[in-house]
Amino acid sequence: MIAVLTAVRDAGSLKQAADRLGRSYRHLWGQLHEWEAALGAPLVSWSRGSRARLTEFAERLLWAELRARKRMQPHIEALRAHLEQALAEAHAETPMLLRLCASHDLALPMLRSFAARRGLGIELLTQGSIDALRSLNAGRCLVAGFHVPALAGAAPDFARALKPLLRPGQHKLIGCSRRTQGLMLRHEHAGLVVEAGDIAASGLRFVNRQVGSGTRLLMDHWLREGGVAASQITGYDDAIEESHVALAATIASGAADIGPGVEAAALEFGLHFVPLVGEDYFLACLKEQLDRPEVVHLRDLLASPDWAAVLASLPGYTPARAPGAVLAMTGELPWWRFARRKASAAAG
């Protein structure tokens, strides 16, 4: 039914939709009437001499199906990785495999495919930044992905959430990518939001990321800096999506008006994008695991010009300042830089 409705919407004609799907006009006509009877609502409206159009009810069905698919996308990616590993084992192959628990990012499935073509299997499990680092510390993965914004201040929200999970000397960071994080909203609302207080004043319905995700931490920080309470924003604590694309689909469908995300997700759904801050996406690894062959291979891939070219195809993304390089946390994360400056000032 979803395929038929999509074809009718795109073709504007039941006859052309039937041709695209390789079915007869009579068959499609009969199916539509069966579905309308079962659902108790019309799906297509048309009149002689005009295009066939989906009813509002049918449009809502398409959006609901799309949102469901986008919500499942990270889980499908994880399942695909499990199946690929099982297939390799069934063929008695021993591919190099790295397990990565990581905050949702549109570049990661691309990295997984890129690495697979170069002899490194990546088993990708999508989690929030906090849960990914917890998985690393519990030994459930070899590498964890998380992101932090380039903030000049102490970033207390990020420090409070992430600092207990990362220890200088015990953990090392690997440069991965940089991206632009911002707000996504439909074009009819463009210009309404410049700062945090505008969301509350406009009455726009907010859809947020889950607690524990780096994007949710960024939103909490942004509101605090703007002197805005979460309770002032409709939906801030209630409407939740677990990925950038699912959140973008929710806004595009009209179920919400505004929410955080990356530029590539906004463009995928034809949304207006308001950039807020650049972010560094890091991979964390325990220091004693850095010399493992799969980690070394991953670092080499991240440092390659071929990966930089792949990343360039994703709007709002650029390679990390030092892709694939091993980085010291005290030099990269804003709260440790802030603490060091503060200590130096006190000593002076």
Figure out the total of helices: 15
Major beta-sheet overview: 8 strands, mixed
Average the pLDDT over all residues and give the rounded result.
Answer: 86
Quickly give the structural class. alpha/beta
The low-pLDDT segments are: 338-348
Q: What share of the residues does DSSP label as strand, in percent?
A: 15-25%
Element string (H = helix, E = strand): HHHEEHEHEHEHEHEHEHEHEHHEEHH
State Rg: 23 Å
Short description:
This protein is 48% helix and 20% strand. It is of the alpha/beta class and 348 residues long.
Which properties best describe this structure?
348 residues, alpha/beta, Arc Repressor Mutant, subunit A, D-Maltodextrin-Binding Protein, domain 2, 2 domains, eight-stranded mixed β-sheet, two-stranded antiparallel ribbon, 15 helices, 20% strand
Structure write-up:
The protein has 348 residues and is an alpha/beta fold. The protein has helices spanning 2-11, 14-21, 25-39, 56-90, 107-116, 129-137, 156-162, 196-202, 214-226, 244-253, 263-268, 293-302, 305-312, 329-332, 334-347, and strands at residues 44-45, 53-54, 96-102, 120-126, 143-149, 171-185, 208-209, 240-241, 258-262, 272-286, 317-319, 326-327. The strands form 3 sheets. Strands 3, 4, 5, 6, 9, 10, 11 and 12 form an 8-stranded mixed sheet that branches. A two-stranded antiparallel ribbon has the order 1-2. α2 (14-21) crosses α3 (25-39) and α7 (156-162) packs antiparallel against α9. The protein starts with a helix and ends with a helix. The model is unreliable at 338-348 (pLDDT under 50).
